[in-house]
Amino acid sequence: MPAVLPFCSVRDMTAHQFSTATERDALCGFLDKQRADLLRKVEGVSDTDARRTPTVSSLSLLGLLKHSALWERRWFQVIVAGRTLPGEWPEPEIEDWREEDFRVGEQDTVKQWAAFFEEQAAISREIIAGLALEAPCGRPDLMDRNLRWVLLHMIEETARHAGHADIIRETLDGSTGMY
Fold first, then answer.
1. Alpha carbon distance 110, 40 (integer Å)
2. What predicted TM-score, i.e. pTM, was given to this entire model?
3. Which partner from 3, 30, 99, 157 sits 20 to 30 angstroms from 118, CA to CA?
4. Closest by alpha carbon to 137, among 65, 53, 40, 127?
5. Are 82 and 138 in contact (CB under 8 A)?
6. Cα separation of 160 and 118, whole Å?
7. Residues 6+ apart with CB under 8 A from 141
8. Does residue 137 belong to any structural domain of this protein?
9. Which residues pair with 146 in a beta bridge?
10. Is residue 9 part of a domain?
11. What confidence tens digit (pLDDT) does each residue in 77-93 have?
């Protein structure tokens, strides 16, 4: 299990404190950093505030966390590892399943979705550790993609959502920055 990473200050962007000795180390380190940034944005936020959509978009902190947790599971367990999970993508029967991932209700909590996200990330790390970066995805319809592509995509997506969360958090309580 990776150690808790000390991160750099906003003024010193060169001080990312994870190994870049190999391409795998760098990819995994950057993905873990983005995961941590997203989780940091929901720390200390009440469930009520985490459900709020304070900007012109329909995004909330909790919706972003839920979506990120679900797609962490989908990309690594379903797409990379080729596992079949009942009721999981791409089998949802609801028409607007993409938007559904972001919807949250009173039953959804920060604690619940943060724990699920961390659990899925731990499973993802196990999957990643057992595969070469060149390993093709396990889903037959996505075998033209490999683990390296998925890691890059997940860095991109998780960073995008951490950025969204940063704006929402600042709108909610003035908190800024990823570090």
1. 11
2. 0.86
3. 99
4. 127
5. yes
6. 18
7. none
8. yes
9. 136
10. no
11. 999 999 988 777 655 55
